[in-house]
Amino acid sequence: MRVAFLILACSCLGWIACKPPLKLGNVAESNARAALGNNCKLFPNTDSTLLLAIEVSDRSRLRALVLIVADGVILFDREFTPGYVQWHTPYEIALLDLPEAMPAHKTMDDFVRIITIQNPKP
Prior knowledge:
Distance between the termini: 45 Å
Oligomer: single chain
Number of domains: 1
């Protein structure tokens, strides 16, 4: 009995270890690349339900999108002056949108905005 349990446990571990990595939704990735170009950077949130896509370009303003992984619907679309945009929480992004000239009384932290992404689907 103990041997049978050990064999079953090893089989389950082997199945889990060989499980392919979670893939992004093809529609979301395709929509992001269609909007931002094939070189865009893609970052899923921690539960892989949303996809942050960032344009890669030499332009002075870049574009960022957040899409629903399951169906590719765009929930957020914004241009920003290259600073950064990244996941802050699974449903919030931190966006640093710097002005062309930094006011004397401001710091970079004054231009970071936390944006909540509202997912219309439960």
